[in-house]
Write a structure and sequence with these properties.
Blueprint (H helix, E strand, L loop, with lengths): L2 E5 L2 E4 L4 E8 L6 E8 L6 E6 L6 E3 L7 E6 L4 E6 L8 E9 L12 E2 L3 E6 L1
Parallel strand pairs: 2-11
Antiparallel strand pairs: 1-3, 3-8, 4-5, 4-9, 5-6, 7-8, 9-10, 9-11
């Protein structure tokens, strides 16, 4: 069992930056691939980014490529999502997710465990 807790969300102006963190507990963190997803009001949950268990591979959704960066520190059982050049359309609740294996991919159904989310609001 893995428990995930996100933090770092908040209100920021367009063009600003935020760094989200997701701390995992309950099991050794190393073998878990991690993903970031988001859900805006009235919309389906969508893929944002993924990072492999080792941290050597990452993937990003087209809307965030070049602006968001996923990273992890397995010694701290933590994954991060650095978000730069934020836009109002990035406003959403952001979730981290975990799955066993090296790489999680972009499908939410691939992931076994989810955090409760952190709100990101970008004002224009």
């Amino acid at each position: 069992q893995v428990q995930l807790v996100e933090s770092g969300g908040g209100l920021v102006q367009a063009g600003g930056s935020l760094r989200l963190s997701c701390i995992a507990s309950g099991r050794a963190f190393g073998p878990w691939a991690m993903g970031w997803f988001r859900q805006a009001p009235g919309k389906e949950r969508e893929y944002v980014a993924t990072i492999s268990a080792s941290g050597s591979s990452t993937g990003y959704a087209d809307p965030v490529k070049g602006r968001f960066t996923a990273s992890r520190d397995n010694n701290k059982n933590t994954v991060y999502l650095q978000m730069n050049s934020l836009k109002p359309e990035d406003t959403a609740v952001y979730y981290c997710a975990a799955r066993t294996g090296h790489y999680g991919g972009s499908e939410s159904s691939n992931y076994d465990y989810w955090g409760q989310g952190t709100q990101v609001t970008v004002s224009s």
